[in-house]
Specification:
CATH architecture: 2-Layer Sandwich
Number of helices: 5
Largest sheet: 6 strands, antiparallel
Number of domains: 1
Strand order of the largest sheet: 2-3-4-5-1-6
CATH topology: TATA-Binding Protein
CATH class: Alpha Beta
Shape: globular
CATH superfamily: TT1751-like domain
Radius of gyration: 15 Å
Helix content: 40-55%
C-alpha cells in the first residue's frame, strides 16, 4: 500500500460495506458530505463498464474548523476521501486517505496533531470492518 492511504478488506458485500463505513465514520464524528458513484459516472459519460466504486467525502466538522483556522487554504485538502471498491473477484476494499500524510504537506506545527488524531479515527473505521487492514 502507498504512503498516502491505508485500507481494509470488508467481509460484507459492496452496498453493505458502504453502509457500514458510513456508520463507522459517524461513530468517529464524521459526516459524509459527498458521494461520487464512479461506476455510474463512467457508464454515463464514457459508456465504460466498471466494477462498483464509490468515493465518500468524509468530514469531521470539529477538526475541519481547527484546520481552517490554522490555514484557510487547507480546504483544498478537505474532505478526507474514503473509497469503497469491488474487485473482479468480488472482494470489497475500503481505502482511506491518510490525513497525517496529506496534511503533512502543509508543514505547519499546529496542523500536525490534527492529522494524527484524524488518522487514528479513520484507522478505527478501517478496523471496525472486521478483517485485517494495512497501512
Amino acid at each position: 500500500m502507498s504512503s498516502y492511504v491505508f485500507s481494509a478488506q470488508s467481509p460484507k458485500g459492496f452496498e453493505a460495506t458502504v453502509q457500514a463505513v458510513t456508520e463507522a465514520l459517524k461513530q468517529e464524528g464524521f459526516g459524509v458530505l459527498t458521494t461520487i458513484d464512479v461506476q455510474a459516472t463512467l457508464k454515463a459519460k464514457l459508456g465504460v463498464e466498471q466494477r462498483p466504486y464509490v468515493i465518500l467525502g468524509a468530514c469531521n466538522p470539529h477538526f475541519a474548523h481547527q484546520a481552517l483556522q490554522a490555514d484557510p487554504d487547507i480546504g483544498a485538502l478537505l474532505p478526507c476521501n474514503v473509497v469503497v471498491r469491488e474487485d473482479a473477484d468480488g472482494a470489497v476494499h475500503v481505502v482511506l486517505m491518510d490525513p497525517q500524510a496529506v496534511l503533512g504537506m502543509v508543514a505547519r506545527p499546529e496542523i500536525e496533531p490534527l492529522g494524527g488524531e484524524v488518522r487514528s479515527r479513520l484507522q478505527r473505521v478501517a478496523e471496525s470492518l472486521g478483517r485485517g487492514w494495512s497501512a
